[in-house]
Amino acid sequence: MDDISEMINLYEFVTATNGQILGEPAAQLFDAFSADAAQIKQGQMFVAIATPEGDIQANIRQAIQNGARGLICKNPPQCDTDGVSVVMVRDVVGALMQWAQYMLGRYGTQVIGVAGVAGKSITADAIGRVLSTRYAVHSKPDAADGRLSVPFALASLKPSDQFTVLKLSMSEVGEMGALAEAAQPQTAVITNISNYHMGGFASPDQMAEEMRVLVDLLPPGGVAVINHDDDRVRGLATTTRADVSTYGTSFGADMMAYNIQAGDDGTVFDLRMGNERHNGIKVSFLSKHHINCLLAALQVGLHHDIPLADGLRALGELSPLPGRLRPLDGRGGSRLIDGTYGGGVLSAMGMLDWLEETRKTAERRVFFMLGDIDNPGKNHAAVYRAIGQRAAKVVDVLFTQGTGAAIAGRAALDYGLPPDRVQMTATPQDAIKRFERGYQLDADDLVVINAGIACGMQQFTRSLLEREADIAQLPAPPADSILSHPTRLTWLEINYDAIANNVRQLKAMLSADVALMAVVKADAYGHGAEMTARTALDNGAEWLGVSSVHEALALREAGINAPILAMNYTPPYMARHAMLNDITLTVFDIETASAYDRVAAEINNKVTVHIKLDSGMGRIGVLPDGVVLLVRHLSSLQNVQAEGIFTHFSMADSLSDYTEQQTERFMAALRDIQSATGRTFKYVHAANSAATVAHPAAHFDLVRPGIALYGLHPSDDVTLPEGFQPALTWKTLIAQIKTLPAGHPIGYGNTYITEKPERVALLPVGYGDGYRRGPQNAGEVLVRGQRAPIRGRVSMEKTIISIEHIPQAAVGDEVVLIGKQGSAQITAEQVAANIGTINYEITCNALPRLPRR
Questions:
Q1: Is 244 exposed, middle or buried, given 0-12, 13-18 or 19+ CB atoms closer than 10 A?
Q2: One of 140, 521, 731, 798 is an active-site residue; which one?
Q3: What is the pTM (predicted TM-score) of this model?
Q4: Which of 30, 279, 343, 732 has the greatest number of C-beta atoms within 10 Å?
């Protein structure tokens, strides 16, 4: 009977939600809910809700193929559902909330809700452990956060459970009311409200008001367990009808921990509750902010008649959950602290505090690995800078992974951590490779990993484990992560693993003595210069190429120390900045070279240059008949060092022999220089992406691929070999749907007029984002895996598409402008062909203001 009661009953669900069974039901009992079609397991019930991919019907098909036995949906499935029980409801999310409320009422289970920015999982786990000393308790502390966390967690509730401990996770205004109405907790625990980690909230005060909804909904006789150390949380006690108990580490708390001593294997503290004292309490948790989680559990236990001594014994046996600062054995006898499940700013700061305190008594080398934080909020730069500033004082080596964490790396440099001890990477794989190249762990080493679950830093922890069996102690990626929402109306997704692959593919084309310069000008062709540069350097590139000193300085300010060539003209007044930041300049005339020499003399420095030869393109560069004179003049300058010489091909991407002609002119100029002056150069280079692929004779000492780094073809005539991967996807979403009558114009100029009633969708993207208006537009986009034509002119921030042939399209659906959706794909090359330009321009047009993730 107990086994059956732990399953979701089809008819109970229909009763609770007033749903309708479609056709003959197959299964009647289900193991769990899942909203992730790719990860669903045999015997589970699939929840068909809008996802970032947008295609609900495709998700339904995939879920059924992967073993779903049940389906909850709003619209009838458009696929074979034989062997699947289908329940149709008016509102899928609302129905799940109704079911949760129904089941709690049916079983009479008391609910303890845990809310706050951080520490919810640890608190829920601790409460469950304390209450379990006397009661039957249902607790899912490792359940994923999100708007469906309550019904998903309750899928395993049993009639015999006297209590359930539920995490009430909110990410935007209005969510707490729905969660609290479904759960109807009798006890609420509020852990903290952060000044940093605000997610979708405008301010900490707005977040506090959302949590006030929970404590104000508590019934008379209920209990609000409040963190006394947090001013905003403490303020929530003023309006609730429930009893209030406080906990913390500051005076005034009903239950207070003091004399807190951090150690390598846990924390020791004393405890006061009224007249009761307990001294020398030891727990296995390292961070002081976790002590408050344990105090909250003890307070809940006291309110349910569990003596303090019993609660303390239970907590003494409790270990951190996977990924929540859990100690593990590392290679070479080292110690790892794994915080790769939702490691946010409070977790990072807590561990840095612990490191500072324990270093007073232990001599060791400390590595701190920081990955991007999940949903850091609007003030994310301040979050990362605060972590970086703190890390500079207490760690020996700081590794960062991701664009956000790199801000912390730059802050650490600003606050004095030496450049060779700050390692910034774009992907977990690059972090692993760089760590393995540079460091050998031993028994005196400590590695702390703090990262959001989404950035995949579990791979880094796994690479350092002493025992393969300990992989089971790492957090699994949360199922149903698709419940999160995009934070902007249009955005780019950059696959840095694809860029890494492309760099390795290019390196494989070269001889061992040929270097690779990754061209990252124009914000890496729209892909993000900093992270692209790091990825390229971590995968074989030796140089970086940019257009201007301004672009080069941005990379230097990001802590990138590799050689950089500014390939365009640099005014003499900018040469000072180049010299002070070790940036190589391009020179092509005597006057500019002489000016550089004078600037260098003024600051007692040297300037390194590469000579640009115009071998037939007609752009920047010295002509062949003037190059010998220029080289002689450079040799006479005391402060100018001519390290290299290069040219650029105008038709390497075409089926033409002109590239061979340019190559011969270039080589003839090199012979003339050597004959007349005896000079040779360390770097001779000419090959762009097309020449790197199609003209190996032009590789010389160094190649300069640009477009190929990003998995885009140089041209229709010169395409990339198999194995290259496009790295950029451009997305938006549907903001409005309506049916226009026949004869209705669309967009400025009325260039399109409907011939019959036509269902259209508005996309919040336009030429203000870099999505081209004319002379032609991109032609089409992808909606639910189908091509949808653009109607009328593209506006500054709006585009209209026809979805007449996609009846299931809905507001909020994800739309792909460039990239894949299902089996369909729109490439940058296809968009360029429709507009009448080249793929380079398409990706470069994506404005820097667009989020890149």
A1: middle
A2: 521
A3: 0.80
A4: 343
